[in-house]
Amino acid sequence: MTSLLSSISGQFGKAVILGSLLPVLILAILNVVIVAPLLPETSAIQARLARVAVGEERWAAVTLGFVVLVLTGLLYNLNIPIIRLYEGYPWRQSWVGILFTWPKKKRFAAAVPLRLALRYLRRELNKLDPQNQRSQSLGRQQTALAMFINSELPDQEELILPTRLGNVVRCFERYPWVAYGMDAIVLWPRLISKIDSPFGATVDDAKTSFDFMLNSSFLSALTTLGIVTIALFYPIPLAFPSAVPWLWRMLLFATLAVVFYRFSIGRAVAWGMQVKAAFDLYRFDLLKALGYQQLPQSFFEEQALWQRISAQLLYADARERPLPYKTPTTRVIAASPAGIQLRITKDLTLIPVDGHIEVKLTVQNSDNRTADAVTLVESVPDGYKYVLQSARTSVGPIRLSNLNPVELVIAQIPPASDLTVTYEIQRVAG
Question: On the CB side of 167, how many CA atoms lie within 13 Å of its CA?
């Protein structure tokens, strides 16, 4: 998804100048001042640059400017591969990647149960004494742990990457799916069209700042490798005094590479906050732009809605269960597992004795997984009302959670099975 999170506000020139050109110029100056003295041709190079600086060699100045522009363009177009390199994608399956990933997976395996344990312990302490100081301390620890898990590690262990930067970026890439059931890869290109230009500028500014830090780190690392190559090409005595000029330069640029990398992590967090906010603020505008007039009434209903839309856009030829553009009068939502889809049919029967109408809903779970916390949402027709205590199921208990619209909650529906729900409605007097 990283390749999709590019400039969205039209400020292309600003992104190139600050994100790519500026790192090239800074590192070029540092190379001329610090690295060039290591070369045997140092005096000739410096004299040539001095003549270029005062305008004596215009063609050399043009050539130098052209080289800088080429390097800037190359760096800008290699932005995505550089980010993926720092995230750890190309080498995650190597022994180095496995070695770097292992402690992060171990931390994930410890942090998730610890968060649940803190939540349970705090709840029990609050029952005994809401003003307990230990409960408040546990609350602060729980908040800090939750912030760490949601910003530093992905939601699934198999998604963990070898580097901290990779996990920070993957966290906000996964945020739309975890929060709303939105497939970011499918929906981000469409969401861009609904983002206002001022907000889009803030997203681009955060991305540009991140690019500056990461590109500076990358160029510093390349300079370190260049110094090592020069040292090998021009053999130097191994005596300590002779090696000092080479060693301190290598250490300097290696340190710069690490420092800029650490700064890039903070910039990635800021960039991720803007991307998250874009989904938070503009997802319903996107829903309308896609032609859907549905408005989900709950968290689980919204997740189910976006999951179906994402699948429908990803698999355009799927026609088995197209999502209606308007909110149907009868809906069924399963809290878990993610992506499970249930079929529902509806029949009406008039009860002659008291004039009530019996509504019969048949829910079919054709999946090989159990549907948990299933909610049936029913819009009662105008002029009618739900008859209290009339709901019943063919298997297990049922609970009324809301009256307008009527929401009936069933604990679970086993895989490959049907369940029948009946309730009654009656005409409102007058």
Answer: 25
In sequence order, which ranges of 234-348 are alpha helices (DSSP H)?
240-289, 299-314
Question: Could you tell me the domains of the chain?
Answer: 330-427 (2.60.40.1170)
pLDDT of residue 256: 95
Decide: 76 and 19 in contact? Cβ < 8 Å: yes
- CA-nearest of 210, 276, 287 to 7 is 210
- Say what the pLDDT of residue 5 is: 47
pLDDT digits (tens, 9 = 90+) for 13-63: 778 888 888 999 898 888 878 887 776 665 555 555 555 554 555 555 566
Q: How many residues does the chain have?
A: 430
Three-class DSSP category at 82: helix
Q: Which run of H or of E encompasses 362?
A: strand 357-365
Token pair listed for 234: 């021009």
Helix or strand or coil: residue 392?
strand
* 3-state SS, residue 377: strand
Residue 92, classed as helix, strand or coil, is coil
Spatial separation of the C-alpha atoms in residues 412 and 365, rounded to whole Å: 10
**Which pLDDT belongs to residue 128?**
76
Q: What integer pLDDT is reported at residue 259 of this predicted model?
A: 96
Q: Which of 430, 8, 30, 3 is nearest to 260 (CA)?
A: 30
pTM for this prediction? 0.77
Q: Taking the CB of residue 276, how many other CB atoms lie within 10 A of it?
A: 15
What pLDDT was estimated at residue 90?
Answer: 93
pLDDT score at 49: 57
| DSSP track, 1-36 | -GGGSS--SS-HHHHHIIIIIHHHHHHHHHIIIIIG
Whether 50 contacts 44, CB under 8 Å: no
Helix or strand holding residue 335 (H, E): strand 330-336
Cα–Cα distance list, 62 to 25, 53, 59 (Å): 15, 11, 5
Q: Which secondary structure element, helix H or strand E, spans residue 97, and what is its range?
A: helix 95-128
Q: Which residues of the chain have pLDDT under 70?
A: 1-12, 39-64, 234-242, 318-321, 352-353, 430
Encoded tokens for 284: 């319903």
**What is the distance between the alpha carbons of residues 274 and 64, in angstroms, rounded to a whole number?**
37
Query: Within the chain, how many helices (H) and strands (E) appear?
Result: 12, 9
